[in-house]
Amino acid sequence: MAKPLSIQLYTLRDQIAADRDGTLTRLAEIGYRAVEAFDPTADPAGFRKLLDDLGVGVSSTHAYALFDKDAGEVFEAVATVGTDLAIIPGGIAEEEFTTADGLRRTADKLNGFAAKAAEHGIRIGYHNHWWEIEPRFEGRTALEVLTDELAPEVFLEVDTYWAQVGGADVPALLRTLGDRVLALHVKDGPGVKGEPHTAVGKGAIDVPSILAAAPAAQRIVELDTCATDIFQAVAESRAYLTALEEGLS
Question: What is the predicted pLDDT for the residue at 232?
Fold first, then answer.
């Protein structure tokens, strides 16, 4: 892989809350060389120093904090942790994705964040769930319609699992969205709402076809919940994806 496989640290939120340094060290020992942060404002300098010591980079960060903290503070933290990609992972009402007016309001909000981010050398992205996929507008998903309204510099982080749960043909969706997609959340499980996820490669998702449809996108493992030991699951996910990428290359 041109870019090292990353992992969204929300996957290990409980472990990080209990022992951040130990958890990050264990991820490095498993073999992860990149992470995606979920709150860059939590001790950004200490977070960056530890990762530097471990030889781990930051592929991107979620930036939910933009909804309740000063934007300048958030973007300064994003730069401090070592990335220029800040992704909005929520904070917008699901109902906004069910009407054309709601999608325009959502685009205006994201474009506003992007304009502020550009002043700090940061790019804004958007991360989907199922509710941006389920509503259809003349056969197109709400995410596709939203993308048409976004400023060109706003990119997408497609959560491939939730896109499938929302009813998308995920490889086709990725091909349609094209180079707007800079990152993929790669997860696996039964493909239904409310059930725990599994290690990637152990569930019902056709991961190889999905990855083949967006070969240049950053791969980021994320398991929202997991019924098995989480460290074992993220290790198995890394092993599966590393072998798969080697087979595709």
Answer: 98
